[in-house]
Design goal:
The chain has 277 residues and is α/β, with parallel strands linked by helices. The chain has helices at 7-10, 31-38, 69-78, 98-107, 119-125, 154-163, 174-178, 212-223, 240-250, 263-267, and strands spanning 4-5, 18-21, 45-46, 87-90, 113-116, 167-170, 195-196, 230-234, 256-259.
Length: 277
Amino acid sequence: MSPLLNAEELINHLDDWLIVDCRYNLLQSNWGYEQYVENHLPGARFVHLDNDLSAAKTGFNGRHPLARPEQLITVFQRLGINHDSQVVVYDDMGGCFASRLWWSLKWLGFDKVAVLNGGLQAWKKIGGPLTSIEPEVAPGNFIGQPREGWVLQVDEIKENLESKEYLIIDARANDRFRGENETIDPVAGHIPGAINRPFVNNLDKEGLFKTASQIKNEFTRLLSAYPQQSIIHQCGSGVSACHNWLAMSYAGLEHSLKLYPGSWSEWASDPTRPVAR
C-alpha cells in the first residue's frame, strides 16, 4: 500500500482498519485530545505527541525527543495494534504530526501504515462521519525492533560538519531556517551545511500531497547540486522532518534516509555548537 491513503478509500474500511488521531498544537499541548473528545473518525484512537511519541525532555535533548522503542511498543499495544493490522493515521495539519507516528511505526519494522491524505479536512469534504464515542480497545500484540541506521544522534551530526557524508535537509519554514522570525526556539538559525525544504512544499493549495511525480521532480532539482546519496532529515524537533521523509518515500526516491530526532531544538541548546544564518 502507498504511504498515503485517500479519504474515499478509507470510508470503505472503517470496520476493519485501525485509525489513529494525531492532532496536536505546539502552543497548547492538550488541544489535540480536546478536539478528539469533541469528535473524531469512527473507531479512531488518540495518540499524544508529547506523552506517547516523545521521551522526557531534559532541556538539552530537543522539544520532542524520540521515545525509546520499549515506550513506543507499549503505546502501540495500548492502541490495539496487532502484527497484521492496517493502520491509518491522520491530523488536521497536512500530515505534519501524523507523519511522526507513521515514521515511528516504520522505524520499529511495521510497514502496514498510511497517512490520510488531506487529513480531517479531506474527510469532512467527502462527508465522512464523525463521532464523539471513544472505542473500547483490546490490547494489541505489536512487537517491533528498530531498523538499523535510521536514527542519528547529535554527535554524529557534529561529525558530519567535517565529513559532509550526509546532506542535511531542514523542514522548517524558510524564515526560521534563515534565522528570522524565530518564535519557537530560543536560538535562531540552522545547522551549518543544511539546505531547506519546508514540509509545506509537499502540499498543494488544498492541503493534499502533490502528486508523486511533482514531489520527485522537486526533490530531484533540490538535490541535483549535491553529491550525497544519504539524507538526514531534521526540523525544529524531529516532527515535520518525518513529513519530508514521507514525501520522499511516496515519490519513490531511493536515497538512504536518516532522521535526526533532536533537530534544531537540541542542536541549539548547546552554545558551543556552530550556527549558520
